[in-house]
Amino acid sequence: MSIFLDKNSKIIVQGITGAEGSYHTDRMYKYGTNLVGGVTPGKGGQRTPQGLAVFDTVREAVAATGATHTCIFVPPPFAADALYEAYDAGITFAVCITEGVPVHDTLKVVGATPGMRIIGPNCPGLASPGKALVGIMPGHVFKEGGIGVISRSGTLTYEIVDLLTRAGLGQSTCIGVGGDPIIGTTFVECLREFKNDPQTQAIVICGEIGGSDEEEAAAFVAEHLPELPVVAFIGGRNAPPGKSLGHAGAIISGSFGTPQSKIAAFEAAGIPVAQRPSEIPALLAQRLAVRA
Amino acid sequence: MNLMEYQGKELFKRSGIAVPSSHHALDPQAVAAFLEGALGQWVVKAQVLMGGRGKAGKIKMATGASQGRSVAQEIMATPMPPNRQNPAGEPVKSLLVEERLDIAKEAYCAITIDRAARKPVIVVSRFGGMDIEEVAEQHPESIAKFYVDTTIGYSAFMGRELAFAAQLDPGYRKEFPAILAALYDLFFRYGVKLVEINPLALTADGRVVASDAKVELDDDALFRFPEFAQWRAALPLDEDELLAAQAGVGIRNFRRFPGKVGTMANGAGLAMATMDAVANAGGEVADFLDVGGGANAQRVRNCYELVVNTTGAKVFFINIFGGITRGDEVARGIVTAMAQTASRKIPLVIRLTGTNEEEGRRILREAAMTPVETMDEGAREAVRLSHGA
Predict the structure, then answer these.
(1) Cβ-contact A194, A174 below 8 angstroms
(2) By Cβ atoms counted within 10 A, which residue in A10, A63, A177, B164 is the most buried?
(3) Which of A137, A149, A155 to mutate to test the interface with B (most CBs of B within 10 A)?
(4) Which fold has domain A138-292?
């Protein structure tokens, strides 16, 4: 299996003819993702270089293709609108790559679209290796296997996946949940899916400073996945308080969102925390061996 | 973007929240001129973003023009003393002269976004005038919260419930739901990340007045409010943000630190991990820098110059995980950037992966740079060189 995404998921791209959209459409297509079309208002009727049909509206795209998934590449002022349009057309799974979406926009969309799973915004997307890749992740670092990966980062995720692949540890699904303060899908919601996925044998949680997603994930693992090998990493241990580092959500506010609190939560849940990404494969192999 | 008190109160006024009558003054002369014809006692308050103004002696009483001028001079003579978050302190560039309220009670209310609940949360306490984190420690039972369903928005019952739950003085009850309505309207209309009234004063004559104002706007939403551009100009400049903007990287993507190891990575998460790797190797970083996607010659040059010219870096550790980018292209970009720059040269340690990575490393070696294969190796090498330099 895998979660959220498999070989048969029918995917459209919103903003398919834009610079980012067309570039990444080509990469997703070459990875073997089941893309069925795309949307750019005013360009309906055209075809992409891959031969994908372009529609004016998401409603038309869904009617013509039966798409259930969308990947959104539109500028920040239009991201909320793109998500509402997808929801209204019956899309059930939306990946929003856009960085810089106003936090109130995300807040309203998340509250108003029950039943539609949103990944992001400000995220690299997700990949179920060997099946499909949606977003901007580099396909060549992945290998199909049993490790689930959840992360708030982009390149750091590729780094970690690359380390896993080199160590012979393939992945079931890798999700970059996004670096914003408000995101559509949290670590816990990913873990809930992984719990029911027979392909997933172990999980890597790549967190960072800010918020409490890591603390909640640790508590969830302790309660619902005590048997599953899980390894964590926290980025930004040496970050100063009160300043965002790159990601809008990576900020220590007062005593809240500190690396110490996250590391303590993982350790209390029996989850080893790697000091550096390069330690992750060995820690994981150790946990898998103990279990076997 | 955090607003100054006078700016926050201007937003309060626009939204129908009662604030003390006041005058914003740019210098002691303007304070004196305003107090010339004004009766009674007034409060002169430094307009700064840093907290702790009272303790720092930056809020003073004054009656009449001459006293107004002298306390204004005193307040403006020295900057706000430094603290951990603001090691440079903050100069006082303007003052708010405000009607002195005869305060009977002080309460607290705020609206912010709760990340875990993914909802706006209204927070109320009957203890005002002190730091809310302190209240949370000393009187946790006094803090009442309401998580707002964004499809409903604010409704008056929320204010009534909160007033009872927080055991606000009965004197607040009649006006409180309407004050929260106005506050929520402001929060929603301007896409605010945090709005806080601390204290919300109950005066001896029964008025409920916002005695202070704290507003944090969402930088990502500022494009919707061009009118705030002039307020931004009045705020103290964050020098790191300014330098980042000049170098063409995002304002959140550059931060300076006191160490000797300059760093740059593609992606915020990787850039944070790079800082951590340097610390793990026993070094201290000179900066956090996310170069973003597409590390071409121009971008690399801008970033190199940014770090060399504005930090104490003795070595520059470039950490590029080439997901999509080709290793040889990045290497050529770095070599070109170094050939073009007129800035002083410091040793480069370059960790480069991705398609054509071997070719990339060959190009770097030929240009007498130090290519390494892993982040840990690069961090160790950079720290070693920084000690030697």
Answers:
(1) no
(2) A177
(3) A155
(4) Rossmann fold (3.40.50)
